[in-house]
Amino acid sequence: KVAPVVKRLIERGTSVCIVNTNQQHVMVTSALKRFQLDSVDMSLISGNIYAEGPAAIAGHIMLSLNRFMQQVSPQVVIVQGDTTTAMVGSIAAFYNNITVAHVEAGLRTYDFQNPFPEEFHRRVVAVPSLLNFAPTPRARRALLAENIPSSRIWLSGNTVVDALFDSLSKPIPAAATALLQRIAGVHPKGRLVLVTMHRRESFEAHMEDMCDGVLDLLTQVPDAVVLLPVHTNPRVQATVKHKFGEGQKRLIICDPLEADIFPFILKEATLILTDSGGVQEEAVSLGKALLVMRAATERPEGVEVGNAVVSGRSKEKIASLSVKILTDKAEFDRMSQTHYPYGYGNSSVLITDVILSHMKNGKPTSAPMSAGPHEGGGDKDPAEKQKSWSSHQDPAQRGPLHPAPHVQSHASLLPAPAASRGGPRGGADLVVVLTVFGRATLDLQMRMLQPQTAFKGRK
């Protein structure tokens, strides 16, 4: 999600350092490779702190980030989302009198247990953040309700849409083609159901129910083919192995999909079942029917526009709702319309403009401007919507990081379903981007990304 912003900052001459709390080495490497971001790693934390729990993890990260920020003295710290890293990074930056920019600000469920501990994290991050980038009008209203001044909030859309459309504008990777051919080989006229699950609150009993719901779906819909990329968390893997064994008929279990492959699989899916946050945003932006296997979602826009249904985690609800979507053409058609409640693929442009304006002038642009959805929905066609984007965005600065959402269409490798199935240079100082891949934090790794003219002799 943060990569499009990093790329924009680097393109405009800014020195960027990515500090990454790294659990999933393979997944991190995939993401860096996908966006052509090289890295130099520096281990700042050692020991099995994950076993000590979230409080210990936060404490270790706080001490290390404090030392790091005092040594590097960045001008801006960017935190993304609602991770432990985002929360601790915002506090450490505040203590060191460094500007905090929060990407994906204002998401709320108003339930500290769903999701846990992310709902608490994002509430905390809002307090010290000078630059809050709210992806939707609802998120902006949530920040205003918490007495965050409007002068500190920008309606930006979500950068995950930038990354999604950028990926789909590129040629389909050979590995994605091979996987789609494998799926097509399972059933000559099968429909792909993509399933992802990994959340902490879903572990053990809840996740077993979710797996049972998938099994019931397979029993009741004979042309459904389920693809389940299994998260690397040992608790997720143990549950999947317990419930599915070595596999089931029309069920493909695989390793996590790399960042350049997943969008193409998502694009070909008929139905998505997930407890992920980002997948909700991606699915709606591609016009996919979506079942949210959670007690609550901080992304209700997908439900409001009609693409998503919150099923909870009971096997009965998961199975019954999935079967209805796959067997009721009217319901499927209703849930398969494309909407843009999370932006139009250029959120990183506005975010970069605001950050660089702050770095140059000591303050952001004079008034919050929007590159995201307006009040009243996100259905306007992107080509029309582009005309009303912020006037301060120089078209020459936008650059071809990715096209408009009308991405290149790749010929589907799956059988078509039957009709009845329905500006300013910011190189004067350093931007630090804090990001996390997973919660099991064993290392803090520093990734130095800079243009040739950056640092001017500084080490």
Automatic annotation (TrEMBL):
What CDD domains does this protein map onto? GTB_UDP-GlcNAc_2-Epimerase
Cite the residue spans of the region called Disordered.
361-408
The record's section on InterPro entries has: UDP_GlcNAc_Epimerase_2_dom, WecB-like
- List the keywords (alphabetical): Isomerase
Q: Where is the composition biased (Basic and acidic residues)?
A: 376-387
Q: Isomerase: is it a keyword of this entry? A: yes
Q: Where is the signal peptide?
A: none
Under Enzyme Commission nomenclature, its number is 5.1.3.14
What sequence ranges are listed for the domain UDP-N-acetylglucosamine 2-epimerase?
A: 14-355
Reply yes or no: does the keyword Hydrolase apply. no
Mind listing the GO molecular function terms for this protein?
UDP-N-acetylglucosamine 2-epimerase activity
NCBIfam families found in the cross-reference section: wecB
PANTHER family hit by this protein: UDP-N-ACETYLGLUCOSAMINE 2-EPIMERASE
Family of the protein in this entry = Belongs to the UDP-N-acetylglucosamine 2-epimerase family.
The name on file for this protein is UDP-N-acetylglucosamine 2-epimerase (non-hydrolyzing)
Which organism is this entry from? Hemiselmis andersenii (Cryptophyte alga)
